């Protein structure tokens, strides 16, 4: 498929939105100015049907980024061959601008059942063994797709305890090593970093969450970053506990925008996705948030250039 014409929002900052079912028809009809659309790969694995037809209409208008949630890249049980087959077929059909999934695991043997999939993004231990497993699986994906893959950092609600005597990597160093060893790119989700920082604060971390996120970003190799994600989150405080959840169900908070501006100053004009997956708003609201991201990125780049001058 040939790359379609798509009007750019700006000369330098590529900004896209997550394209979800309630907005399929309106976006195709209005064709707003966007640099790319992002869809969840697994929603289009069927070899035909209405969903794939809609995606192909969108692809005729915009570049498409395929973002997966089910590859289970960190699984010691390996990748699901069927899942990888479907992803390869979709990549060949859509010719996406980028393909990505998460630094997580979901597949594992379970009792007498041969294999189970948790249908969730479970965190990895930042250990040598987990890094070896993740590198092996990411390399298998890249070999199969014959293209560079992107891996996203996770919002995690539990952590592994290191085995005594075992090296424990920091998350940025773990991801940097993944990129160096496999040649993959990193998809940096700044909302995920902030959600983790807020939950760490609830657990007693005395650091300012925005400062903690900035330090996290400063530890990432800028050369490996291929895309940024921004989204909303929510805070739940009830009889069951107090926690911040990465629900992608609201506008981006001021604090996450501050972290995003820091990311742009550090990484440069990286393509940026506005995610909104629950309580999906009117298309105009999502486009407005993408416009805010574009404006903030341009301002951050101008400030960075002024500091360098």
Question: How is this structure best described in words?
Answer:
- By secondary structure, the chain is of the alpha/beta class.
- Helices cover 40% and strands 20% of the residues.
- It has 9 helices and 12 strands.
- The strands form 3 sheets. An 8-stranded parallel β-barrel has the order 1-2-3-4-7-8-9-12, surrounded by 4 helices. A two-stranded antiparallel ribbon has the order 5-6.
Summarize the structure.
It contains nine helices and twelve strands. It has 309 residues and is an alpha/beta fold. The protein has an eight-stranded parallel β-barrel, surrounded by four helices.
Per-chain topology:
Blueprint: E1 15-18, H1 24-30, E2 36-40, H2 50-59, E3 64-67, H3 81-94, E4 98-102, E5 105-110, E6 113-122, H4 128-145, E7 150-152, H5 171-182, E8 185-189, H6 190-202, H7 209-218, E9 225-230, E10 234-238, E11 241-245, H8 254-267, E12 272-274, H9 283-308
Parallel strand pairs: 1-2, 1-12, 2-3, 3-4, 4-7, 7-8, 8-9, 9-12
Antiparallel strand pairs: 5-6, 10-11
Say how many strands there are.
12
Portion of residues in beta strands equals 15-25%
Low-confidence runs of at least 5 consecutive residues: 1-11
Strand order of the largest sheet: 1-2-3-4-7-8-9-12
The whole-angstrom Rg is: 19 Å
Rough outline: globular
Mean pLDDT metric: 93
Spell the H/E element sequence: EHEHEHEEEHEHEHHEEEHEH
**What is the rounded distance between the termini?**
42 Å
Structural class: alpha/beta
Largest sheet: 8 strands, parallel, barrel
Helix content: 40-55%
Oligomer: single chain
Number of contiguous helices = 9
């Amino acid at each position: 498929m040939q790359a379609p014409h798509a009007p750019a929002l700006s000369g330098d900052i590529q900004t896209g939105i997550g394209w979800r079912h309630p907005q399929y028809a309106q976006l195709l009809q209005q064709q707003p100015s966007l640099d790319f659309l992002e869809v969840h790969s697994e929603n289009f694995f069927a070899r035909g049907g209405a969903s794939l037809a809609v995606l192909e209409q969108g692809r005729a208008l915009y570049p498409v980024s395929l973002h997966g949630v089910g590859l289970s890249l960190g699984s010691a049980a390996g990748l699901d061959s069927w899942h990888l087959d479907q992803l390869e077929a979709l990549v060949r059909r859509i010719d996406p601008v980028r393909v990505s999934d998460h630094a997580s695991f979901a597949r594992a043997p379970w009792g007498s059942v041969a294999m189970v999939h948790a249908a969730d993004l479970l965190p990895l231990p930042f250990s040598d063994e987990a890094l070896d497993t993740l590198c092996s699986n990411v390399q298998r994906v890249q070999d199969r797709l014959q293209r560079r893959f992107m891996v996203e950092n996770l919002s995690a609600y539990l952590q592994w305890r290191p085995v005594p005597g075992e090296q424990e990597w920091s998350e940025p160093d773990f991801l940097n090593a993944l990129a160096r060893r496999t040649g993959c790119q990193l998809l940096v989700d700044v909302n995920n970093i902030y959600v983790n920082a807020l939950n760490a604060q609830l657990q007693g971390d005395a650091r300012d969450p925005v400062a903690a996120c900035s330090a996290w970003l400063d530890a990432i190799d800028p050369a490996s970053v291929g895309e940024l994600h921004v989204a909303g989150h929510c805070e739940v405080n009830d009889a069951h506990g107090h926690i911040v959840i990465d629900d992608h169900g609201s506008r981006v908070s001021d604090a996450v925008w501050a972290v995003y501006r820091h990311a742009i100053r550090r990484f440069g004009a990286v393509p940026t996705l506005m995610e909104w997956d629950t309580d999906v708003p009117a298309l105009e609201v999502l486009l407005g948030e993408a416009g805010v991201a574009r404006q903030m990125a341009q301002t951050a780049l101008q400030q960075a250039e002024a500091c360098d001058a």
